[in-house]
Automatic annotation (TrEMBL):
Keywords: Signal. This is Uncharacterized protein LOC106068782. Residues 1-20 form the signal peptide. The keyword Signal applies.
Length: 466
């Protein structure tokens, strides 16, 4: 008790003078995962997982989410706040706490009603008295619809840390979006409001994948949190149950799939048919799909459309050989070697409705020709398969650039197109030493480069996951 009073006094002095030593604060969380999340995990995976596999994947991802949430919380240290989250307990249920939905839906819940249901469930379990947690969060697989008439991915009791009413309900995909959302609900519980409409920090009104500061709290948020933790009502953060655990997942020990870009897309869109769009003219700032260009956001194909939409990139995702994404930057990190021009292999599927074609890279190139590998979009999208067609001949790696070369004799076509469109057909051709008087005759029809047109990326999708 004497220590607690002394620490509270110190925290009060810290608010006014910043002269006191920074204290270590711990927020112990009771995590409840309902069955809707488990089922979503099992169904959105490709191939589909069993319930046991989905539960194991969830456990791995919960630890990663909390580990990376603590990384975001560490941005408060510069403001004199040292706080971390530890797991008080995790319960993965075989039933759903949320069981009432908006009319004519089976998966959209009113967010306020969902929070009330979770609070009632906690009360029935006598959970707060039994576990003595600092806050509780329900991770759901259902969509939350707010009282303001818009979808929202979480709802939280404001300034309720250290109370039995300190609860939050949050949609759980999970992706890096949920790491930001978890850091956000903790700030709400510590009395921080949203930042202004132009903010790109954690407490932005709406978090977007390309927010430059989504790994950090703003000065305004930090000051609100500092004032709250100095209050006597925040004293629970000064004592920690010995049973509470701080996950410390490293990229080497992590066995889940949250660093796989295709899985990120499947979870972001809640659809196992989605995948990372590897190359289209307008995405990744017209750069190859690697480096800093993929460390803020990646693009995901919306099934049955020609549209790719942004999703949150996970810190730790490989972005170059011996490099991983860290806070929006592609940074050096010891890892196994990968081909820097083919980090994740071929794009999962090629969907070209206008051709039409839907399938994998090999059937596409077998049908429309390896010459398509000369084009940047196909070379980046089918990087692994294109390598199997590569002859190693400089300038003629994928053979003739036109299928019309063989329609002519070598004497007709090779003097003009040997070093361009007909490099393979004319490879061993030895022509005349001089150009004939009057030049070479015009070929009809003349060879044209065979390039299969690819679709253009659509606009950012504004909407929900279903």
């Amino acid at each position: 008790m004497v220590r607690r009073i002394a620490v509270l006094l110190c925290l009060s002095i810290l608010v006014m003078t910043s002269s006191c030593q920074v204290q270590n604060l711990v927020a112990e969380v009771y995590v409840v995962v309902e069955d809707s999340t488990v089922q979503s995990y099992a169904q959105q995976s490709s191939p589909a997982q069993t319930i046991a596999e989905a539960t194991n994947s969830l456990s791995n991802d919960i630890d990663l989410v909390i580990t990376q949430t603590n990384v975001l919380l560490s941005s408060l240290v510069q403001y004199g706040i040292n706080i971390e989250v530890r797991k008080r307990k995790v319960d993965i249920l075989s039933t759903n706490i949320i069981n009432t939905f908006l009319l004519e839906t089976t998966y959209i819940a009113d967010s306020s009603a969902a929070k009330a249901s979770f609070q009632s469930w906690l009360n029935l379990q006598n959970a707060y008295s039994t576990l003595n947690y600092d806050f509780a969060v329900l991770w759901t697989g259902f969509d939350l619809y707010g009282t303001s008439g818009i979808f929202e991915n979480s709802i939280t009791s404001f300034a309720a840390m250290c109370k039995s009413t300190g609860v939050s309900v949050m949609e759980f995909d999970p992706t890096a979006r949920d790491i930001v959302a978890t850091a956000k609900i903790i700030a709400y519980l510590l009395s921080s409001l949203n930042d202004g409409i132009t903010s790109t920090y954690i407490m932005a009104i709406i978090n977007a994948p390309d927010d430059a500061n989504r790994w950090f709290y703003s000065n305004s948020s930090a000051q609100s949190i500092k004032e709250f933790v100095a209050l006597p009502r925040a004293s629970c953060l000064l004592s920690t149950n010995s049973a509470s655990v701080k996950p410390a997942v490293t990229y080497a020990t992590y066995t889940g799939s949250l660093l796989d870009p295709d899985v990120i897309c499947q979870r972001s869109l809640n659809d196992s048919r989605s995948y990372m769009c590897k190359s289209l003219p307008q995405i990744y700032n017209n750069q190859p799909p690697k480096g800093n260009a993929v460390c803020g956001q990646i693009y995901c194909r919306i099934p049955k459309t020609s549209i790719c939409t942004p999703a949150f990139t996970s810190d730790g995702m490989i972005c170059e050989n011996q490099k991983r994404c860290t806070k929006g930057q592609c940074s050096s990190y010891p890892t196994s070697s990968v081909d820097p021009n083919c980090l994740w292999g071929d794009q999962k599927t090629l969907d070209f409705p206008l051709i039409p074609f839907s399938g994998t890279c090999k059937p596409f190139l077998d049908t429309y020709g390896a010459a398509n590998c000369y084009t940047r979009p196909i070379n980046e999208t089918c990087c692994n398969t294109c390598k199997t067609y590569n002859s190693g001949i400089p300038g003629c790696e994928y053979g003739d650039k036109s299928s019309a070369c063989v329609l002519f004799t070598q004497a007709q076509v090779c003097p003009i197109y040997k070093n361009t469109l007909c490099c393979n057909y004319c490879r061993n051709y030895v022509g005349r030493r001089s150009v004939p008087e009057g030049g070479y005759p015009e070929l009809t029809p003349s060879p044209q480069q065979n390039v299969t047109e690819v679709p253009v990326v659509g606009d950012y999708l504004q909407g929900k996951r279903r």
